[in-house]
Every structure is written in C-alpha cells, then in structure tokens.
Design brief:
mainly alpha, MetI-like fold, 3 domains, about 0% strand
Length: about 525
C-alpha cells in the first residue's frame, strides 16, 4: 500500500514538473516572438516534435520576404533571399519596362559613325575616279548589312521581353514559397539559441523593420533601374573617383617612407649587418664545405630522425641535385632559407609564448600577422627594397615576412590547448611558474610548436623564386631565368630541386615530431 501511494506521489510530482516546464516554454515563446504568439506556439510544437525538417507555411514571411527575416534578426537568411528576389524583380522590370535594345542601339551608333566616314570616302573616290571605288562600295554594303542585322537582333530581343518578365515572375514565386516554408524553422532555431543566450535579440524591432525595408528598397530599386535602363545613370555604372585623392595618397606614402629611410638608416644597417653575419656563416658551412661532408651529414641526420627509408630517399634527392649541377645553388638556397627560418623561429616562438597568456596583446598582433600573410609578396617587397635595398638581406626579410607567422600562431594554439586540469594538478603539487611552463606547458604544446616550425620552413622555401627577383641567388634564379626565356627543361629540373629540398626538410621536421 505504501509503495502504491509513493508511486502516485512521484507521478503527481512528475506531472507538475512537466506542466510547469510546458507553461515556462509557452511564456518563453510569447516573450521571444511578441507578435502572434498562438500561431508560433503551434508551429514551434510541430517543428520540435520531429527530428527531421518539418515544412510549415508562414504567409507573412512569404509576402514580406527579406524584410520579415531582417526584422526577426535572421540576416543569414535575409541576404541570400534578397539576392534571389532582386534577380526576380530585375527580370520582371527588364521584361516589362526595360530598354532591352540599348546595347544594340549603342552598337548601331558606333557603326553609323564609321559608315558615314566610308560614304564620304566613297563619294570622294567616285569623284576622283579612284580604283578603290569597289573596295569602298563593299565596305559600305558590309556596314549597312551589319546595321540591318543588329536592328533585327534588337527587335528579337525586344520581342522576348514578356518571356524575360515571366522568368522573373517564376523566380519570384519560387523564392517567396521557399521563404514561407523555411521561415518558421529558421525562427524556431533562433528561439533555441535564445533560450541559452538571452543576449540574442528577440521580438520584432521597429528599427529592424525600417532598416530591412530601406535596405531592400535601395538594393532592389537600384538594381532594377540599372539593368532596365543601362547607361542612363553613370553613377551606378562607375564609382565616382577623384584623381587628386590618389595623387595625394601617393605623395603621403612616399613622404612617409622617405622619412623612415632617413631617420632609421642606422637601424636598417644594423639589421642588414646581423642578417649578413648569419647568412655568411651558413653559406660558409653549406657552400664552402666539401660536398661529401654535407651529403653524409644530411643523410645521417635524416636516418636518425625519420628512418632508413627516408634517408635513402634524401640521398637520392641530393644525388639528383649534384648530378644535374644544382648542388652549389641548392646549398645557397638552403643557406638563405636557413637564415630566414632561424630568425623567424627565434623571434616567433618567444613571441608566441608571450602572447599565449596575454589575449589583448595577441588581439593586437593578429591583424599584423593577417596583413603579413595575405598581402601579396610583390607588394611588401616594395618597402623592403626601400629600407634594405636589393640583395640577399632584403630577400631574407621578405621571406621572414611571408613565412614567419605560422610559428607564432601555432605556438599560441599549442600553449592555449594545454588542458587546465593538467596545469591545476601541477600547481596543486607545488609547481612553480617556471616549472609549470618548462615541464608542463611546453612539452604538451611541443607537437603544435614543431608543426609551426615545419610550416614556417615550407612557406619560406616557397619564397625562393620570388626572392630571386630582388637579388637572392640559388635555385630560384634558374627558375626565374627559365621563365624569362621560356626554357621549359631548365625550369622543370630546377623546380624539382626546390621540391626535393622541401621534402628533405619536411621529413627532418616531421620525423623529429613523430
């Protein structure tokens, strides 16, 4: 008897909890949608009752289109629908009121100017009884036939207006129907996000309605006018520019670089001297040392880090470069690459360590690194040449700019990826900050840091050919020469040498990581 009573009490409690949850959900939906809550409660229950996509129909969303989605804050849906609706409206406007023959008339006007000139030449030839009369007659006849053909083409295009408008109407109806079907599901997904994050805007804001309406009106109206009456408003066809602004900008940029070069001459000379020291030392090791020593050292190092099979491949690659006469230039390339990569790693890893626990500083340098990676190499070569001149130091700086960011990013990623539970366990056992950093953070972040080193080396090697444009020697010089003289054989063979250098370095770093 007691067990029965307890079961009834548990059922009553569960019923009250479920009833309370249902009432709370209804209140949340009312708060979220604000307008027409009963309709949305019914639709949300229907959508939430199935794990699959449940099609519903929202007439308001279909009629208002992107305005409805924008007013509800669903801009990720509003923008694609706006583009498709604009296409439909443009086709309807072009077909009904558009000047479809505008291009044809422009072509006719252009040909008529030439035709008038040829007629004058024909009249002069007839008057002077020139032997070119037949030539001018054929030219005039050809131009007249072209004009007649274009006029016929323009008439055919104009006759297609109703079909163009019908195509636009079909597109518009299809997108309206799609918006009606998708609207409730999209709003229900936003409601689910709102339940966990109340900072998401709910309801319908008058400001959002006005913004959506104005945005759609401007986009649709401008597109309809531009495509229906092409060339009528030059502002829509070409961006209004002022040459003086560009000239002023050029003067300011040149003045800035002139100031930097004159004021920072000592600094740039010091940087050039430091790069020269490292570069000369590596060239002495790689180029001046007997080839058999370097060959044996690279094969042995590859064997120790990546295994005997990779060592055999490395030996074959080195033999390829030696037998084809690329040995000295390959070693020069490795010296140049080694200088740039070493400096990038020496600067990048400490910078990544410093940035890992300082989010504000990392947020400050992120745009700088984005600029370094996305700006085309030929663009940032211009200030590098202004500051360092041409030659190998400028090539090293250019290579560092392009390839130096991955090691910073991956060092930050590795250190931030260290589990907090491991760090807390080490701290609980009395680990100092230095011990925590050197014995916990760095070992766990080491795979990511090594991956950054690998990426820096690979990106630096990708700059070999570009760096040869500003005086860097090595394999890039052969590739550049092959491009200039269309020497396919030399370019392919030198390219394979660069590829083999990259593969050897990659196996060395990857092998050590494994």
């Amino acid at each position: 008897m007691t067990e029965t009573v307890q079961t009834q009490l548990d059922d009553a409690i569960d019923f009250k909890v479920a009833e309370k949850f249902a009432e709370e959900r209804l209140d949340n939906i009312r708060t979220f949608v604000q307008t027409n809550p009963d309709y949305y409660i019914k639709q949300f229950d229907k959508i939430g009752g199935s794990s699959r996509f449940t099609p519903t129909f929202n007439a308001s969303a279909g009629i208002l289109g992107p305005i409805w989605f924008g007013a509800r804050g669903l801009w990720m849906w509003a923008l694609p629908f706006l583009i498709i609706e604009t296409l439909g409206y443009v086709q309807i406007a072009r077909g009904l009121i558009g000047d479809l023959a505008a291009d044809a008339r422009a072509r006719i006007e252009s040909i008529e100017g030439t035709l008038e000139l040829r007629r004058q030449q024909l009249a002069s030839a007839i008057e002077s009884q020139s032997d070119k009369v037949d030539v001018y007659k054929r030219t005039v006849k050809s131009l007249e036939d072209s004009i007649d053909g274009i006029r016929l083409e323009a008439q055919e295009i104009a006759d297609q207006g109703i079909w163009i408008a019908l195509t636009g109407l079909i597109i518009l109806i299809a997108v309206k129907f799609a918006q009606s079907v998708i609207a409730n599901s999209a709003l229900e997904a936003r409601f689910s996000d709102w339940l966990s994050d109340r900072s998401i805007r709910s309801g319908v804001s008058l400001r959002q309605v006005i913004l959506s309406t104005l945005f759609m009106a401007v986009i649709v109206g401008t597109a309809m006018y531009h495509y229906s009456f092409p060339g009528q408003l030059e502002t829509l066809a070409e961006f209004p520019t002022d040459p003086d602004i560009r000239l002023t900008g050029i003067v300011w940029v040149e003045a800035f670089f002139t100031f930097c070069v004159t004021q920072g001459e000592a600094l740039f000379d010091f940087i050039t001297y430091g790069i020269r020291l490292i570069l000369d030392a590596l060239e002495l090791v790689f180029v001046s040392t007997p080839w058999i020593v370097i060959f044996s050292f690279i094969v042995l190092l590859t064997w120790l880090t990546a295994g005997i099979r990779t060592a055999i491949y490395s030996g074959a690659f080195l033999a390829y470069m030696g037998l084809l006469g690329f040995w000295d230039k390959a070693m020069t390339t490795l010296a140049l690459l080694g200088t740039a990569a070493c400096l990038s790693i020496v600067i990048g890893i400490p910078l990544g360590m410093f940035s890992a626990r300082r989010p504000r500083f990392y947020a400050f340098i992120q745009p700088i690194m984005d600029f370094m990676q996305t700006m085309p190499a030929f663009v940032f070569m211009i200030p590098v040449i202004a500051f360092f001149g041409t030659g190998k130091p400028a090539a090293v700086v250019t290579t560092m700019i392009f390839g130096g960011t991955p090691v910073v990013r991956l060092t930050v990623l590795g250190l931030r990826g260290v589990p907090e539970s491991v760090r807390e366990a080490a701290i609980s056992f009395g680990a100092s900050k230095f011990y925590l950093f050197t014995r916990v953070d760095l070992p766990l972040a080491a795979p990511s840091i090594r991956a950054g080193i690998n990426q820096t080396i690979m990106l630096s090697l990708a700059m070999v050919v570009v760096a040869s444009l500003i005086g860097a020697k090595g394999l890039g010089e052969d590739v550049l020469e092959a491009l200039q003289y269309a020497n396919v054989g030399q370019g392919i063979l030198a390219g394979f040498s660069i590829l083999f250098c990259a593969m050897i370095l990659d196996r060395l770093v990857q092998g050590a990581r494994k």
